Amino acid sequence: MKKLFLLLAISPLLVACGQSKQDSTSTSTASPKTIVVATAGDIPPFDFEKDGNLTGYDVEVLKVVDEKLDQYKIEFQKTAWESIFPGVDAGRYQAAANNLSYTKERADKYLYSLPIAKNPLVLVSRKDKALTSLQDIAGKTTRDDTGTSTAKVVTDWNQNHSDNPATIQYSGEDVAKRLTDLANGEFDFLIFDKISVQKIIQDRGLDLNVVDLESNDNPNNYIIFSSDQKEFKEQFDKVLKELYQDGTLEKLSKTYLGGSYLPDQSQLQ
Q: Which residues form the Solute-binding protein family 3/N-terminal domain (predicted)?
């Protein structure tokens, strides 16, 4: 009888300990939430393919964040530029990385990360027909993609200069092809981000005139999240601040962007 009593007294403790261990194990082995990031993968040095793999500054920043967030698993999906935001809207992608700048229209619909790099816009033209400011684009022709912030710069300018607007040809070609066509005289100017333009001109040996656009009041680029990814956006921003402070972001900038192009620290508060 004493042995039976002792067994009955101990057995609830065994059950309790067993339940505690099982609960702990189930929590630690919970599957991470998958975040699919869409990118066109055609804007070096931010997003591009090398040896069949996606890389670039945006991609590598996300990879480092992924290493620090056990509760998430970040995957990349290469798609056409014009399919990125419709895909986010449809829930196929939870985020987008494509050297994305800020626009109010996007901010009304999506969540923006803290800025991950500083990347002002430039005006590019042939040296024999150099343009030196936005005022010079009157009556000239450019090429762009639909829905880009650079096309918006031109359309906004046209609204205030309707007497002699610039013409946008929506070619759908990547920026490297557009810069090559510009060098060949197929159109008059291109507005794009400084870092990508410098990289492509160097890689392709193009002889073009490049002028900073002083009117660009928001020169940063970001990661964009769907509106239902507030928790992931907050976790991303938290890790981004850590990467800024410990020098990782600076290292990635020098490796992929060719210099220190970090946003001002005040913008990471």
A: 34-260
